[in-house]
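Anyone else keep sequences and structure tokens together like this?

Example one:
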Amino acid sequence: MEAVEPVKITEIDTFISKGKNKHFVIKRLANSDMLLTEEKIRLMKSIGNQYIGKHYDIYFNWSDEKIYCTELAWKIFK
């Protein structure tokens, strides 16, 4: 999922192809086994799905009407 215009699910190959020289980095969340329970993952997916189709917020306002990339990540992981 990425907050582009509009927020959408993007296939990993498509996401990678957008990077400069197709460069990307994968990082692991410390203590993910304790933090990301099956219930928490279901909740995060549900929250994320609520934003699919929302427009990208070029003004970086904190609202649910439009959303920008960091805001999307924060709202899903909070």
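And example two:
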Amino acid sequence: MKNKLFKYFYYEPKIKYEFYSEIPYEIKNGLILIHLNIDGSDCKFVFDTGSKSYIKNQIQKKMDLRHYFNSASTDANKIKVESEIVLGNLALGDLKVNNFKFHTKESFPFDCHNTIDGILGNDILNQGVFFFDNDAKKLIVTNSINKIDDLKEFKRLPIKINLGDIILKKNKEVFTLDSGYSYGFILTNRKSFLYNDTCESKIFMQNINALNSSRLKETIYQNGDLCLAGNKYSGIIQFTDGFDTNILGSYWFFANNIIIDIDKKVIYLKKKKIYSINQISNILNINFSFLNGNVVISGISNSISSVKLYDHVLKVNNVDLKDIHSECELQEVLKSQDKELGFNLDLKRDRDTISVFLSKEDLY
């Protein structure tokens, strides 16, 4: 999640040599997980465009990384945090940055199973061009935008940089691009923004989890649309008090193939292929419907005996279905979700992941 700087932000001097690497990543629980190398050791990090870089304290002690100094910051809940800064030699594919600065932290709120070593934050982005290919699930890191193919298929959008944060503007509204906000499509502090009294909304008390704290806040959920760079996006919008900007979260991030060029202060967007219900049905031989007020996913006619539905459905909203082993378990997960707000589904087709948002109206 977004970690707003209080006192310290620093870009390392930009690397001068040419480089190009394609690095696979996985998306788990709404976060980008990527492998990198620190002082010769392989590490698994979350790539978070809304945070500085962090390393888990026990990992840096094991590597015996060199102390640099201490700093103070505030997280998204405005809780002050003090941390040590250590130096490590970072390698992300062919991109190598010596004495890269990591803040230290004992643990991360999203790391329930203690499998994440750190966060690679927006302080790495000045080193080159970063292309998040969400169709192929790979990160292309290069020193030149000219090394990326088919750039004409992308739409160019100017950005501003504020203490590392990537800022987009639409009319008078300001957005922070935060791939680490894994809870939704948009989090906003402006009730007037994308808020339509004619649309049905839900009010919940929800824990807003920042990097270092969690606060229970009243949150309004509503389906809504956003147009950026000529593309229309639909998803669940969350409203809560206490944030400085609107946050474009991971659901929006993963709806695009995104190229970030900090040096030119621009991002390039190519909207990821989102399939309609009919296309999903034709591709996977799966039907979506309502039965007694609940969502039902079922096989189509002759294919029903050969289709294992839980092998196709990877995620419902933010619920990872890796431990689902039967159709009954899948239906229980679907029943537990609020059908009034719709469903973000990640579906598997061979080696591809198909994303679809289903509103209540889609399913009737």
